[in-house]
Design a protein that fits this description.
With about 170 residues, the protein is α+β, with helices and mostly antiparallel strands. It is about 30% helix and about 20% strand. The structure holds flavin mononucleotide.
């Protein structure tokens, strides 16, 4: 089955660490995303620090999976680029690539929504050191899934949701 059809949000993780080799694959995949005019507006912060992950788990109601995740990835976008209007699409593509590579590596993951919620972006800026001119876009909580089988992927395929023009 393709990675797209295997991926699901996983919010509970084992204590096991994620190796640096696997982290590098996640970063390679993120940076392989398409972007408008190939502007690649992204940079990433890999967060292994448990105290910081716990603080980040309080940025919103939905951020709780970070509380016990062994790994978090913060995606950042550059404010000044060729095509600022396209930056959210570029960043979403990079975030999705992380989720798909995580699935490929046997990791569980979940996208924690940040952009465009200013209060979440600001809370993160107050917790994580980042280069001037860069802003938080998304967070991904990652780790080996607590239970491989407890949750099945729900397939949402629906023929009503597309049309074909011959
Ligand atoms: C932009 C975006 C923001 C999301 N924010 C959160 C979040 O803050 N917390 C969370 O637990 N899941 C979050 N999710 C995951 C969705 O809840 C999840 O993708 C959706 O319920 C479908 O489930 P699936 O990923 O297992 O297919 C987010 C997903 C997207 C694309």
């Amino acid at each position: 089955m393709s990675l797209c059809l295997q991926r699901k949000s996983i919010r509970k993780f084992l204590d096991s660490k994620v190796s640096d080799d696997v982290i590098e694959r996640l970063m390679m995949s993120a940076m392989q995303a398409p972007s408008a005019t190939n502007q690649q507006p992204w940079s990433f912060v890999v967060i292994k620090n448990r105290a910081l992950l716990e603080k980040l788990s309080a940025i919103s109601k939905g951020a709780w999976p970070l509380k016990e995740a062994p790994l978090g990835i913060l995606t950042l976008y550059k404010e000044e680029t060729n095509r600022p209007m396209m930056v959210p699409q570029d960043m979403a593509a990079a975030t999705q690539n992380i989720l798909l590579e995580a699935t490929n590596q046997g990791l569980g993951s979940v996208w924690i929504g940040v952009y465009p919620r200013e209060e979440r972006m600001e809370a993160i800026e107050n917790l994580v050191p980042m280069e001037v001119g860069h802003k938080p876009f998304s967070l991904v909580a990652l780790g080996y899934p607590e239970s491989q089988s407890h949750k099945k992927v729900t397939h949402r395929f629906d023929k009503q949701k597309y049309s074909v023009i011959e």
